[in-house]
């Protein structure tokens, strides 16, 4: 069961010839969630063979052009492709009117509905859930209202122990009942508790997307223990003042969040185009948090299943 | 003296991983004119090492997303780069309001003015002139008001014959006077007519950009004899009905325009993503007009000087 992130854009406000503006695709069990949608996102989706038409939910962090300017073209393209499913967009309230005006202008005879869900950038709220994933907002600290997103794999039903099925000669009805959490009542009246029949194979995985933001202690608490953290690192720490002034973080600060939050892995992006050597970001982050990585467009980061118990598989 | 076109995008409405949406840059004597501005234009400008900040004039053909959606990001980037020169945009009237709204939304503390010049898509008019180029509108026939542009190198001042300078021992004042069209009066009162002192080294070059459009006889007349013609070819002629229905041309029709207009060279683009083999467009066009070429993103097409007389260089 896949849980991975593909990077479509890793530049900050000024794209380069090698780095498009911000956009990530989260793949949870072959369901695709788009996070931010910088200019050229539709081109990157094609380049990296991601299925445009299977994106039903787009999560926007804030209304700066380098995070949203690909959405007008993407919606126009989805329309040309004959999409009929509703498209849900989550983002701060101030973008809705302009988005809808652009959609109206650039989409000839719309074949599907665009539904905008304004999220409160200052609250921690569960804003989306389906059978694969639960999405919670993560307030950020930027020059404009901005919100990150924490994606958690939906809790899984316990598995039934393979050895139990033959031991008690279980019927399909028994199995369904046990999966629903019931105990097993044997013909002789004995009761086998559900916990002795089932096991948790693996824990839900998690991904937090945090861009753009100043260093934030509150954020540390909100992303505690996530498996994969994307935290922007627009600047090196030598430019801390500039980072503060522009509402951004340094690689060292991002790594400090990762360390304090005890995350599994940190990925850094949103690099300012002033830096030619991205290795410097990696070195700086690793000095604080060893499991740090810098991203490039086209990278896919897999989060492995967190096996709890496999002896009954 | 350069006169060349660099292709930034050659796809039709649906970009592919290899072809961005429409945008060309015309270089006339190291002055850069942007024609159309599809999504990702700023990325392509960087990729092909074209100077973003030296573009002062943008010519938009019509208000479909694949021809204009890169302009919001480009303007936002120019602002971040600290541009101060006015930016002039030429296009049909219906795009102005939405453009200005987007510019306002996405451009923080604008450092320069965006000046929109609404052009009449039904008239042939000289809409722009500087000392290097003269731009004339070329009405197109599309589903929405659309206008192409004809760029002609500005007529050159005659050169002074090198042999004349020593023969008559000309002063700087004499040379300026002759360059301004005056005859030369010798000390003895003899008059040497200007035509015997000067020569035309080369003729002005021309480029016509025609996308999107149905086949048009009127267009043939308007691009008569241009050195380089870009004519859209969204479809092969086997899809003529679809081309007609969507307001587009086939490769055969584009080549017919080139033939009838007796142009120097034809370049074809705006290919529908349904075709995997672009060679088919080339074959179809060449069957009508031999000097046909298909374009790819990143191509630069040079137009050589049209030497009239070089014996006095």
UniProtKB/TrEMBL annotation, chains A, B:
Question: What does the record note on quaternary structure?
Answer: Homodimer.
**Where is the catalytic site?**
66
What family does the Swiss-Prot or TrEMBL record give for this protein?
A: Belongs to the RNase Z family.
Q: Which InterPro entries match?
A: RibonucZ/Hydroxyglut_hydro (IPR036866), RNase_Z/BN (IPR013471)
Q: Name one GO molecular function term.
A: 3'-tRNA processing endoribonuclease activity
Coiled-coil positions are none
Gene3D superfamilies, per the entry:
Ribonuclease Z/Hydroxyacylglutathione hydrolase-like (3.60.15.10)
* Cofactor(s) it depends on: Zn(2+)
What keywords would UniProt list here?
Endonuclease, Hydrolase, Metal-binding, Nuclease, tRNA processing, Zinc
Mark the transmembrane ranges. none
EC class (word): hydrolase
The protein's role, per its UniProt record: Zinc phosphodiesterase, which displays some tRNA 3'-processing endonuclease activity. Probably involved in tRNA maturation, by removing a 3'-trailer from precursor tRNA.
Could you tell me what the cofactor note in this record states?
A: Binds 2 Zn(2+) ions.
Q: Report residues binding Zn(2+) 1.
A: 62, 64, 142, 212
- According to UniProt, the name of this protein is Ribonuclease Z
Listed under catalytic activity are: Endonucleolytic cleavage of RNA, removing extra 3' nucleotides from tRNA precursor, generating 3' termini of tRNAs. A 3'-hydroxy group is left at the tRNA terminus and a 5'-phosphoryl group is left at the trailer molecule
NCBIfam families in the record, alphabetically?
A: PRK00055.1-3
Query: What EC identifiers does the entry list?
Result: 3.1.26.11
Biological source species: Tenuifilum thalassicum
UniProt-annotated binding residues for Zn(2+) 2: 66-67, 212, 270
């Amino acid at each position: 069961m896949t849980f991975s992130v593909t990077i479509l854009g890793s530049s900050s406000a000024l794209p380069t010839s090698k780095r498009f503006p911000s956009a990530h695709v989260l793949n949870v069990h072959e369901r695709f969630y788009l996070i931010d949608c910088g200019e050229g996102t539709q081109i990157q989706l094609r380049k990296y063979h991601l299925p445009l038409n299977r994106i039903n939910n787009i999560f926007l962090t804030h209304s700066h052009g380098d995070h949203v300017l690909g959405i007008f073209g993407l919606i126009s393209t989805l329309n040309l492709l004959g999409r009929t499913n509703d498209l849900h967009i989550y983002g701060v309230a101030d973008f809705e009117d302009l988005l809808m005006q652009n959609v109206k202008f650039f989409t000839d005879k719309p074949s599907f509905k665009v539904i905008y869900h304004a999220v409160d950038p200052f609250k921690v709220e569960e804003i989306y859930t389906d059978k694969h994933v639960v999405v919670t907002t993560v307030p950020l600290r930027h020059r404009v209202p901005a919100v990150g997103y924490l994606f958690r794999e939906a809790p899984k039903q316990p598995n039934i122990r393979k050895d139990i099925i033959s031991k008690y000669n279980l019927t399909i009805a028994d199995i369904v009942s046990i999966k629903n959490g019931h105990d097993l009542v044997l013909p002789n009246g004995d009761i086998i508790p559900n916990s002795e029949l089932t096991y948790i194979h693996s824990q839900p995985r998690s991904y937090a997307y945090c861009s753009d933001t100043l260093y934030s202690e509150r954020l540390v608490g909100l992303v505690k223990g996530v498996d994969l953290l994307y935290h922007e690192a627009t600047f090196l720490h030598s430019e801390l003042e500039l980072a503060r002034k522009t509402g951004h973080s340094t690689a060292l600060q991002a790594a400090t969040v990762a360390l304090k939050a005890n995350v599994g892995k940190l990925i850094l992006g949103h690099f300012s185009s002033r830096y030619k050597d991205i290795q410097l970001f990696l070195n700086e982050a690793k000095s604080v948090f060893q499991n740090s990585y810098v991203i490039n467009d086209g990278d896919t980061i897999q989060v492995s299943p967190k096996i709890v118990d496999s002896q009954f598989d």
